[in-house]
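Protein modeling request. Please complete all fields; requests missing the sequence field cannot be processed.
Requester role: graduate student
Desired output: 3D structure, token encoding
Chains: 1
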Amino acid sequence: MKKLVSFLLICLCSVGYAQKGRIAYIDSDFIMSKMPEYEEANKELKKRTAEWEAVIERKKKEIKDLKDQLNVERPLLTQQLIDEKEEDIQVIEKELLDFQHEKFGKDGSYFKQKLDLAKPLQDQISTIVEEIAKKKRYSSVIDKSTSSETALLYVNSADEISDQVIRKLDQTRNKANYLKKKLNNLKLPKDKLKSKNASVANVMN
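Delivered output (205 residues):
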């Protein structure tokens, strides 16, 4: 899993009641892997990626077919026709390279959308980590998944709060789902309302 969470070196040193030097650790990769929302975001990204890769494969096949056809016809063509066909192939090759760069380049759609899909989840984690840090009076929280392996030779399990973050995320999600379900139950569906009104009318008649 790529390192998506660079924001989780959260410093709370400005909090007056924080105990100086007390540090906690999380593993954001592990936390994200436990979030159903992250799995859904990944599915959406994989769907888009598959569509882009299909376009790339079609373009590659088109180029190969044109080159094969040109090789077969070359002995029968004038140099001018050969040059024109080669130029046509070069245009399609450039379209392919441009598309690959647009979708999978350094600043391409893949990496931008990967960050965009993950950001709402990162914000949830960031908020909960800060709540826990303030409550437990940690001065800082370090993300192990974005830290150098050589820099973290040992972490005391008592200072690892990833499970606490996951539990809090689950509680927040369950509460939101409960409130949503309760709100939906308060809304009487139109078809049931019509049926109820019809029953009342029949009784009155």
